Amino acid sequence: xxxxxxxxxxxxxxxxxxxxxxxxxxxxxxxxxxxxxxxxxxxxxxxxxxxxxxxxxxxxxxxxxxxxxxxxxxxxxxxxxxxxxxxxxxxxxxxxxxxxxxxxxxxxxxxxxxxxxxxxxxxxxxxxxxxxxxxxxxxxxxxxxxxxxxxxxxxxxxxxxxxxxxxxxxxxxxxxxxxxxxxxxxxxxxxxxxxxxxxxxxxxxxxxxxxxxxxxxxxxxxxxxxxxxxxxxxxxxxxxxxxxxxxxxxxxxxxxxxxxxxxxxxxxxxxxxxxxxxxxxxxxxxxxxxxxxxxxxxxxxxxxxxxxxxxxxxxxxxxxxxxxxxxxxxxxxxxxxxxxxxxxxxxxxxxxxxxxxxxxxxxxxxxxxxxxxxxxxxxxxxxxxxxxxxxxxxxxxxxxxxxxxxxxxxxxxxxxxxxxxxxxxxxxxxxxxxxxxxxxxxxxxxxxxxxxxxxxxxxxxxxxxxxxxxxxxxxxxxxxxxxxxxxxxxxxxxxxxxxxxxxxxxxxxxxxxxxxxxxxxxxxxxxxxxxxxxxxxxxxxxxxxxxxxxxxxxxxxxxxxxxxxxxxxxxxxxxxxxxxxxxxxxxxxxxxxxxxxxxxxxxxxxxxxxxxxxxxxxxxxxxxxxxxxxxxxxxxxxxxxxxxxxxxxxxx
Length: 652
Description:
Elements: E1 10-15, H1 19-32, E2 36-41, H2 44-53, E3 58-62, E4 64-65, E5 68-69, H3 70-80, E6 86-90, H4 95-104, E7 108-111, H5 118-155, E8 159-164, E9 169-172, H6 174-179, H7 185-189, H8 201-214, E10 216-224, E11 230-241, E12 247-255, H9 257-303, H10 309-334, E13 343-345, H11 347-362, E14 366-371, E15 379-381, H12 383-399, E16 405-416, H13 418-423, E17 430-439, H14 446-451, H15 469-479, E18 483-489, E19 493-501, E20 525-529, H16 533-545, E21 549-553, H17 556-566, E22 570-576, H18 584-594, E23 600-604, H19 610-617, E24 623-625, H20 630-648
Parallel strand pairs: 1-2, 1-3, 3-6, 6-7, 14-16, 20-21, 20-22, 22-23, 23-24
Antiparallel strand pairs: 4-5, 8-9, 8-12, 10-11, 11-12, 13-15, 16-17, 17-19, 18-19
Helix pairs in contact: 2-3, 9-10, 9-16, 10-15, 11-12, 12-15, 17-18
């Protein structure tokens, strides 16, 4: 029972007006070996003063004293030092009164004729006080932790909420309120359930099932804000208990809308680049074969009587070859490998011209409305390709409205700053012309939205679509330095918004006049370098038929050799861009050293070849796009030769 020498002596306050009883009490304590310091008082004022001034550990008080009692001492202790235990010392306290005193707050009592119990009672009171102090410190520490945790939750930049197992919201922090666009925590809690927050009820059910099975959840989902907009969030939840001990879920919410958009754009860019390389490579090879088929069909049509059966066969071959050429053109458009012929143009004018065509293909059960912005800036684009984009989107909208509906075409000027570009990785800061097509059709689900720009992906019945319409739109827009944003909901409709950068010019370029006259030939000598045998033979046949002399080569080195042997008589060179051994620009570099004024035409059907042509294109040299018809080849050759003859004429 002896106190440890390392502990400070117990500070006792003894209230008793009987010196004999005081002496008896102190003697018993000394006998026990307890280390203590005792302040003895007999008057109430002294008792109060000591209690306030000294760090008292335990109060010992007689039950009856002159002018006051032990219960008065208890009242003072409760007021001044409520944590200090009080032990009554009495010779007259009965059992019933003792119980009442303890109920009122007295720690214990000792009868004066049993004073030997005092050390034991004192030790027990001290131990109980130590336990109470420890509990108090634990409670205070818990409160501090709760306060820190509450502060952490309330000041967190992440959304945090507690929800009952049925989805009822129990608590939401300010960050979640802001994330979902509500005015206050009370406003969000009034929603009651997370059911209205999830965009997809199926995903919500999957999350609940996963939580019930594993006790935790980590998922990325779309939520609906108060204003109706959708955001992408990552939720991480675990089991917890509410303040009443009931099972609930504690969920951390991170807004990953921007990150998800970037990841989606990156995945799409990587996927489309891989598909594009494959599609572009296939289309490049097909162009040569289709060009040969188309060219020979053209020659067959010219050389047969219109009433002949063979003539009709050639026409069918020509028709199918043109369809195949159209498919390869769409593939190249998706792959961003087609050769563009951009000029400064007015999008409003293009929309107006396309509208007259749309009315014939859209159908009478669909209302078409156009809202075109006034003073729309000029864009630099290929008019034919932009018209194809609008046509594809409108036909796609028509197919989404089998029962009829409305089709709205709009144009507007808009701008994107650095902040906007963070949410739209394909955008660059600057001004854009926006062209949108909105339908009131069936809409698309998330799975369709993820794949809608893939070539050959279609939701239409077999035989009712190639799956290249939207792929072409994507490729053309990206090749023009623009981007697309799509909004769609099942049963409501879809909006495609196309953004094309504004041109530095303020005036649209004049439209080139179409040449529909008879093709002229000549007596000049031409060098033709083409590695595809079918196209090479077609060029020879077409040009010789028009009166030209043709020297043909199957690769780059052969072309250079033929030029060196015949350079004095060669009047023009037709060079394929990609050839074995030496490519077209390399051939031109060698022959132009000897004949810098020699006219040249480069033939290509693949925009990746343009990187080889950059230097020569800066000189304004003509390019013939594959697959080309016999007439196109003849016109291009005659045009280049006439231009050279005009330069050679003496100035007047």
